[in-house]
Design goal:
Radius of gyration: 24 Å
Largest sheet: 6 strands, mixed
Structural class: alpha+beta
Number of strands: 20
Helix content: 10-25%
CATH topology of the largest domain: Rossmann fold
CATH superfamily of the largest domain: P-loop containing nucleotide triphosphate hydrolases
CATH class of the largest domain: Alpha Beta
Strand content: 35-45%
Number of helices: 8
Bound molecules: adenosine-5'-triphosphate, magnesium ion
Order of helices and strands: EEEHEEEHHHEHEHEEHHEEEEEEEEEE
CATH architecture of the largest domain: 3-Layer(aba) Sandwich
Length: about 350
């Protein structure tokens, strides 16, 4: 059951703090949208307003065209897993998962059956008769996910649902969430601090800063064509490096052997952003490695470039060490141009080499 979610000029003012500042957007039916941004940028506040747990200061929220802005939370058909969304402490795991069904007058037997299915799904069936206090943080989170999904909600809001889990379980569970989401077609918003997680399972990313949307795009599109320096630096690990350069009619000369033409005719100071995976051993610019850190599949190296420290991810075919002077080539599509004043992207599309 797909549900289109629309926000229209939604604002939340906590007595002077604009936690959410005039946000308008449409979340596509049945898609998984990742909500990203630095701590305190308004992600949770936005989710609380969609759920009806927090009133908007101004603006409107629509579910499939119906204005739900003033509807109480219980009537919105939203499944929630929040950072601090407590389980009912006096109930067992089974009772916690069954609760939304019993509340909706589902018969006890079928509620129990459904609860067991969900428990198996999130791998907590062996703890069905424990109370939340007897579970680890990660186990409690899985109970919360099972409880949010048991009623097949039309909109599912997940606010860092995997933050207490170890790496392996986290990977498994996020694939599970993706599978459940695809199977049920439930329109889902997933808040996470983990950009790799956001990139890997979402259909679309929304990146916020100070209560304002910075960019909305498919994950790979946001990575390939960041609209601003902020977006570019938020996605990618190790992060993109920035260099103050001067452009001559859209041409930037990193070295006599490495000239890039950007799809814009512009002369003057620019900020060049270079992603570390853009570099490879080859003809281009000679650099001296400052540090080398080998990580199995790849090695991270650092070097100085136009007075600033740069990072590169190289494959491990050729062993390199600090002090080596080697020539690096650069993939033009890994280089981005930004306005030094306002940080916005300059030019659409990719750069290319010129002789
Ligand atoms: N009840 C409240 N009263 C006053 N200010 C609040 C309240 N709740 C949140 N804020 C403020 O609103 C802003 C946004 O908070 P919010 O919790 O939405 O951020 P977030 O993006 O979820 O951060 P995090 O990633 O750390 O969870 C913050 O500056 C926060 O201090
Ligand atoms: Mg939050």
């Amino acid at each position: 059951m797909d549900m289109k979610l629309t926000l229209e000029h939604v604002t939340k003012d906590f007595s002077g703090t604009l936690a959410v500042n005039d946000i308008s957007l449409t979340m596509q039916d049945g898609k998984l949208t990742g909500l990203l941004g630095p701590s305190g940028c308004g992600k949770s506040t936005l989710l609380y307003m969609i759920a009806g747990l927090e009133q908007v200061t101004s603006g409107h929220i629509y579910f499939d065209g119906q204005d739900v802005t003033t509807l109480p939370a219980e009537t919105r058909g939203v499944g929630l897993v929040f950072q601090n969304y407590a389980l009912y402490p006096h109930m067992t795991v089974e009772q916690n998962i069954m609760f939304p069904l019993l509340n909706a007058r589902v018969k006890k037997e079928s509620a129990q059956k459904k609860a067991r299915e969900m428990a198996r799904f999130v791998q907590i069936e062996e703890y069905m008769h424990r109370k939340p206090a007897q579970l680890s943080g990660g186990q409690q989170q899985r109970v919360a996910i099972a409880r949010a999904l048991v009623k097949s909600p039309q909109i599912l809001l997940l606010d860092e649902p995997l933050s207490n889990l170890d790496a392996r379980l986290r990977l498994d569970l996020r694939e599970e969430i993706r599978r459940i989401q695809k199977e049920t077609g439930v329109t889902t918003i997933f808040v996470t601090h983990d950009q790799e997680e956001a990139m890997s399972i979402t259909d679309e990313l929304v990146l916020m800063k100070n209560g304002i949307i910075q960019q909305i795009a498919a994950p790979q599109a946001m990575y390939r064509y960041p609209q601003s320096r902020f977006v570019a630096s938020f996605l990618g690990n190790p992060p993109i490096s920035f260099f103050n350069m001067v452009a001559e009619n859209g041409l930037v000369e990193l070295s006599p052997n490495l000239k890039l033409k950007f799809p814009i005719s512009l002369s003057g100071p620019v900020v060049l952003g270079i992603r570390p995976e853009g570099w490879a051993l080859g003809s281009g610019i000679v650099v001296e490695f400052l540090s080398v850190s080998v990580r199995g599949r790849e090695q991270y190296v650092s070097f100085m470039l136009h007075g600033q420290k740069a990072y590169a991810i190289l494959d491990t075919e050729n062993a390199v060490k600090p002090g080596d002077r080697l020539s690096l080539a650069l993939k033009p599509y890994c280089v981005h141009l930004f306005d030094p004043e306002n940080g916005l992207r300059l030019g659409k599309g990719d750069a290319h080499y010129v002789e």
